[in-house]
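seq:
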Amino acid sequence: MSLLDPLRFGAALGVAIFHQMFWSWAWVSIGVPGFERHVAADVLYPSATPFTWFGWVGVEIFFVVSGFVIANSASQSSPGAFLLGRALRLYPAVWVCATATFLVLLLFGSGPASEFILPYLHAMLMVPKGVTGQWLDEVYWTLAAETAFYGLVFCAMLTKTITLRHLAFGLTIYSAIFNAIALVVLSCTTPSDLPYLVILMFRVPCAAFLLTHGCFFALGIWLFISANRQLTALEQLAVAVACLSGAAEIYFFASFLLTSIPAIADQSALVPILVWAAAVLLIAYAANRNRRSAGTACAEAPAYLRTLGLITYPLYLTHNVLGAAIIRALVDAGLDATSAVWVALGMLVLVCWFICAKIEPAVRSALMQSLSYFGKLPQRRPATRRPALARGLRLPLPVPAKVNVAAS
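struct:
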């Protein structure tokens, strides 16, 4: 669906604006800054607060899109091809972007070099940090959730009996229970109480457990299934539960921010929920249109939309630290703070286009050659039946072809 590429690009842009125009100065109310503090300019954007504070909800939109796209990829791949496709998609961009972030911190940061080395190694290996550790860039916490979801899908594929439907039901129930408990705790505690902090801990350090975010991936799977066939009444109920669970996660994180940051005390926690709901409705609309047009030839999506989708991943990985460094350089050169943000984002989009168009393919090709040399590429063989995950979706039989490593 061509809608997914501009949607995730918009979500990445929203997260970038949140970090550069709100979090870059509002974090002092909470006291949990990342390494971007070493390169950031000392600028404030209080007048833009009503339009920037909720940009973090782009992450929740990412997770829904990821559930949809990964379900599509898994339904047409063997376990080995799926795992290879994910690795070839994630690692080249991480290696390039993490190295760029590391060099910027070394060359322009105010912190000691030794502080960045271990987080850099963790980023290159995509190893989640510990509870008391530090990410090379705070945005990398989402990769822990993504890789956990990919691993779950891969394990389901290995069983040959667990379908996408089973996986979506499991994630829906699992995450809904935790988010319901979190809401109950939230309703009878204050931000200074330990239980409240424990809930927030599961959003970032323990994202790999998918406790709060499993519902978003599940919703993406349900939307993928709905793009291929009509959902049953029970499945529609599961969609409603996943939506309510997702809204609950967004609500209690928004409530934490609104309570902890005086600059947004007058804002509403419903705003990020409405933004996320609008994105979900767009995906649902596109999925419904896809199902209704099944069997008819569809026009291929314009190349520029696909390019936007490819830019999204490196843009997400670089906008925080690299973006902050560019903004500081522009402000030091005499540009006003607001113009500096937009110029920096424009520069990052161009840089990320170069990464995804030139550098990533070269790294990916070298990685594939290495895997081929050591005989680690999965064997291609004609499929005679649908993969177990795809059964019941009325999907065509997969055609043996090269692994699509560009999908995310």
